[in-house]
Design brief:
single chain; 262 residues; alpha/beta; Rossmann fold; six-stranded mixed β-sheet; 9 helices; 23% strand; globular; binds adenosine-5'-triphosphate
Length: 262
């Protein structure tokens, strides 16, 4: 039995295949329903199609076969608003923190003045309200990633797609941002789809982990992480956490081929 409440399906992937022009099959028959409020991680070795799946959900890439549907939108309830956070913060170095976070609104034609409250709100959300007039070069790696998250938040998304957002950060910063992310998810009721290589990170954050294998990219196992939220640092040192990490690690190693271990 799971303690996590099951909401309605937000996005549904049905039989997704992705074959690139050079013949590489990035995804084969990938199906996944993500429900409102879930924190789902895609976990797998390099090349198993995690980024391809996220890009297809975001509409940045078309599937070769299969469909992506947004049931609530189809029933006319609401438009899905997506936020996308990449591994690199990809900030404009010549622009201030404020201008970087304003960008998505600016692209929609919202003036600096009209955007001001929302940009400052997004910066306050990630703890950077005092850094609005700084430039990216003046910030640490963790702060740059916070700016990148604020830029995704400024459009007030319901669904957040995150592609290894913390992979380049040191462990302490990563743990801190993991906690902040869970706190923000709870506050705003986001649905999160998160790509990671890390068993430990996926268990800490997720309500469900989708374990993938490569060549061709496919789902080999889905696991519910049935530990209650809020999760805090004490969860990291609990027996329950170690047990989940072991199970997920075993599933992942079952997915590795000899070539992945090189
Ligand atoms: N534009 C492209 N053209 C050709 N092949 C591609 C392209 N993009 C990705 N691939 C290939 O598709 C497969 C899946 O790539 P993808 O980036 O989705 O995997 P991933 O699991 O996110 O990997 P990583 O963890 O290393 O980022 C890989 O074999 C990759 O080399």
């Amino acid at each position: 039995m799971t303690s996590h409440k099951k909401g309605p399906v937000v996005v549904s992937l049905n039989g997704i295949g992705k074959v690139f022009e050079n013949g590489t099959t990035a995804l084969d028959d990938f199906s996944l329903d993500v429900r409102e409020g879930e924190f789902v991680s895609l976990l797998g070795p390099s090349g198993c199609g995690k980024s391809s799946a996220l890009r297809i959900i975001a509409g940045l890439s078309d599937p070769s076969t299969g469909t992506v549907s947004w049931p609530a939108e189809r029933s006319g309830q609401e438009e899905h608003v997506l936020g996308f956070v990449f591994q690199e913060p990809t900030l404009m170095p010549w622009a201030t923190v404020f201008a970087n976070v304003w960008l998505p609104l600016r692209l929609k034609g919202v003036s600096r003045q009209a955007a001001r409250d929302r940009v400052m709100e997004a910066l306050a959300t990630v703890g950077l309200a005092d850094f609005a007039e700084d430039f990216p070069r003046q910030l640490s790696g963790g702060m740059k990633m916070r700016v990148s998250i604020a830029r995704a938040l400024v459009t007030r998304p319901k669904v957040l797609l995150m592609d290894e957002p913390f992979a380049a950060l040191d462990e302490i910063t990563r743990f801190k941002l993991n906690n902040d992310l869970l706190h923000l998810q709870k506050t705003f009721g986001w649905t999160v789809l998160f790509v990671t290589h890390s068993v430990f990170e996926s268990v800490y954050l997720s309500s469900r982990i989708v374990v993938m294998a490569a060549r061709p990219g496919r789902v080999i196992r889905e696991m519910e992480i049935d530990a209650p939220y809020p999760r805090e640092d004490s969860f990291r040192t609990s027996a329950e956490y170690s047990q989940y990490c072991r199970e997920v690690s075993d599933a992942l190693h079952g997915a590795l081929e000899p070539a992945d271990a090189l």
